[in-house]
């Protein structure tokens, strides 16, 4: 059944915290477009490509997936490959919105950066961030105003995900102290899977020099509006041309909720989360436009890790829902078996 | 009659999400997974914490398990309330 006036599609691309072992690997070698996009990424990653691919396909990766050298490049790659898969169905998104590293993936989908350039920028970023002092992130069930008294020079608001979901970031010691104080005050907290204090000043020194890399690559105007979670507005030409705008993204706070509000203020959308898990979908379901049912949320992948079949079934169901919402989709009824390039040294677990 | 109702839970859930009163959690919501209602594990942990404090109970660890629905949550709370009564020495 087709809706009378199809909702415009907006893709949501998740970032740090959404990664998990074997994320989206059920689609590798199964969905040809996804497989090709992942192989393009591993190829562009050069010597890093092999180890990244092995750890992605491993149930117990040699370097854990929460480590910056794994979480960031692989989230970037999976978000981008899932985005390409949805585009291959004939879906023409009206907007893109990424969280953290997801914003870089959105910019590639919108043609701001070439895939190859962006992969180089991501790898340069993680090589720098790997040298940053250890730290972490803490999700707090509280508003930014409520967490304010618990912030210090080192512990800052790293992300505003929802009115009562604020992420703190900082070095482990001070972050644990803030977490204990918040817990004593009756606030519920949970560590975000991250071994780095993303979106905090702790990463500032490590990001120095990254701007030169961003300055050196060509940047095109986006083919689709990219709503930035750093400005809570669509990317402007000035943002795109400012190398420090991009270089500082691991340090600057993620204003996801304000950006989502900005996106939905332009009209109702079919929000399609293209990334592992359903973190952004859950946040979006709290938005009044989704609550009243005028905007809708579709997730490409299952809410929690599962067998490869679960990834495939979730994509199948998502494609059907997108088609049902009236978006033109030209999806093959059954994906042909695709052969990933090379032989995985460690096959995805069944 | 249950000591803890779906309406009681929905009121707490709305407080946890910081939502305006207008938000409608219909009775159909009782059998949907929390994730589909926009409540991730953090919001769920907060709801559990508020219920535990408000009703003087301790909910079993598995209350936070996967695929939990409001209906199952309400049942777990009522079981915990029923268990609490003899321990409190109430007649």
From TrEMBL, chain A:
Iron recorded as keyword: no
Q: Where is the composition biased (Low complexity)?
A: 315-350
Annotated region described as Disordered, given as residue ranges: 302-350
> Which Pfam families would you find in this protein's record?
Acyl_transf_1
Return the Gene3D superfamilies for the record. Answer: 3.30.70.3290, Malonyl-Coenzyme A Acyl Carrier Protein, domain 2
Q: Which UniProt keywords apply?
A: Phosphopantetheine, Phosphoprotein
InterPro entries attached here? Ac_transferase_dom_sf, Acyl_transferase_dom, Acyl_Trfase/lysoPLipase, Malonyl_transacylase_ACP-bd, PKS_NRPS_Biosynth_Enz
Q: Which GO terms describe its biological process?
A: fatty acid biosynthetic process
Matching entries from SMART domains are given as: PKS_AT
Name the Gene Ontology molecular function terms of this record.
Answer: fatty acid synthase activity
Q: Where is the Malonyl-CoA:ACP transacylase (MAT) domain?
A: 12-305
Listed PANTHER family: FATTY ACID SYNTHASE, SI:DKEY-61P9.11
Q: What is this protein called?
A: Polyketide synthase
Where does this protein come from, organism-wise?
Streptomyces dioscori
Automatic annotation (TrEMBL), chain B:
Carrier domain location: 3-81
For the keyword Phosphoprotein, the answer is yes
Record PROSITE patterns: CARRIER, PHOSPHOPANTETHEINE
Keyword Iron applies? no
Instruction: Report keywords, A-Z.
Output: Phosphopantetheine, Phosphoprotein
Name of the protein in its database record: Actinorhodin polyketide synthase
Query: Where does this protein come from, organism-wise?
Result: Streptomyces dioscori
């Amino acid at each position: 059944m087709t809706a009378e006036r199809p909702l415009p599609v907006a893709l949501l691309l998740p970032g740090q915290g959404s990664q998990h072992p074997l994320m989206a690997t059920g689609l590798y070698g199964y969905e040809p477009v996804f497989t090709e996009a992942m192989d393009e990424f591993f190829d562009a990653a050069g010597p890093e490509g092999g180890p990244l691919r092995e750890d992605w396909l491993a149930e117990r990766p040699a370097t854990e997936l929460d480590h910056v050298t794994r979480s960031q490049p692989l989230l970037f790659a999976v978000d981008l490959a899932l985005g390409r898969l949805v585009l291959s169905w004939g879906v023409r998104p009206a907007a893109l919105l990424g969280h953290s590293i997801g914003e870089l993936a959105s910019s590639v989908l919108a043609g701001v950066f070439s895939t190859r350039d962006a992969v180089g920028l991501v790898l340069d970023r993680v090589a720098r961030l790997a040298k940053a002092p250890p730290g972490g992130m803490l999700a707090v069930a509280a508003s930014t105003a409520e967490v304010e008294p618990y912030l210090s020079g080192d512990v800052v608001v790293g992300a505003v995900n929802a009115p009562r979901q604020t992420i703190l970031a900082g070095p482990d010691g001070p972050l644990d102290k803030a977490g204990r104080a918040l817990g004593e005050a009756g606030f519920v907290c949970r560590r975000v899977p991250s071994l780095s204090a993303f979106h905090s000043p702790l990463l500032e020194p490590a990001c120095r020099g990254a701007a030169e890399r961003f300055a050196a690559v060509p940047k095109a105007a986006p083919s689709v509006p990219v709503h930035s979670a750093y400005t809570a507005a669509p990317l402007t030409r000035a943002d795109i041309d400012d190398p420090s705008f991009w270089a500082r993204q691991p340090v600057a706070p993620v204003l996801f909720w304000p950006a989502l509000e900005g996106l939905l203020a332009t009209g109702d959308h079919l929000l399609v989360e293209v990334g592992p898990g359903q973190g952004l979908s859950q946040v979006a379901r709290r938005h009044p436009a989704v609550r009243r049912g005028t905007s809708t949320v579709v997730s490409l992948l299952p809410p929690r890790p599962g067998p490869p079949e679960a990834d495939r079934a979730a994509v199948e169901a998502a494609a059907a829902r997108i088609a049902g919402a009236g978006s033109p989709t030209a999806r093959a009824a059954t994906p042909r078996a695709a052969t990933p390039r090379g032989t995985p040294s460690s096959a995805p677990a069944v | 009659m249950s000591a803890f109702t779906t309406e009681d839970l929905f009121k707490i859930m709305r407080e946890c999400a910081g939502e305006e009163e207008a938000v409608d959690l219909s009775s159909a919501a009782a059998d949907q997974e929390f994730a589909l209602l926009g409540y991730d594990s953090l919001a769920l942990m907060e709801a559990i914490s508020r219920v535990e404090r408000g009703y003087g109970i301790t909910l079993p660890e598995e209350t936070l398990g996967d695929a939990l629905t409001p209906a199952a949550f309400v049942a777990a709370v009522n079981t915990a309330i029923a268990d609490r009564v003899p321990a409190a020495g109430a007649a």
